[in-house]
Amino acid sequence: MTIAIGADHAGYLLKDEVSVWLKELGHRVLDCGTNSADSVDYSDFANAVAQAVLSGQAELGILTCGTGLGVSMAANKIRGIRCALCNDPYSARMTREHNNANILAMGARVIGSGVARDVMEEFLGTTFSQDARHHRRVDKMMALENSLPS
After folding, report:
1. Could you tell me which residues come within 8 angstroms of residue 140 by beta carbon, excluding any fewer than 6 positions away?
2. Which residues are catalytic?
3. Cβ neighbours of residue 26 under 8 Å, at least 6 residues apart?
4. In the chain, domain spans
5. pLDDT 10s digits, 62-81
6. Yes or no: domain 2-146 corresponds to CATH 3.40.50.720
7. Whose CA is closest to 65, among 109, 20, 1?
């Protein structure tokens, strides 16, 4: 699977670790930056990862910033994106299984490397439930998004 990854200056070290872990697991990585501690705007990288997912260049995305809040909020402004901020494996599993999240956000200043890897692996290892109730709920969520003016 191809995974798009992106981060701001506060999350780039975790992003680089995520890249290594993804490659160890046999995934292809589309690195959308940033690659230094120089101050940047998280919304630029959230947009780059979201566009890669929407265009089909990547099946899923992973974003990191200091808390995970900024990148998740920015990504969720993009029509078709369901980005979930997860700092524990259970939330990562549930958001894939019940919400069909297509981007994972994590807070580099909130969780350590070990937990981040567990969260990432749970997110990537879980598929969307075939239970009709979850499809109905995601469809309703997307209908809300689509009812908004462009």
Report:
1. none
2. 65, 98
3. none
4. 2-146
5. 999 999 999 999 999 999 99
6. no
7. 109
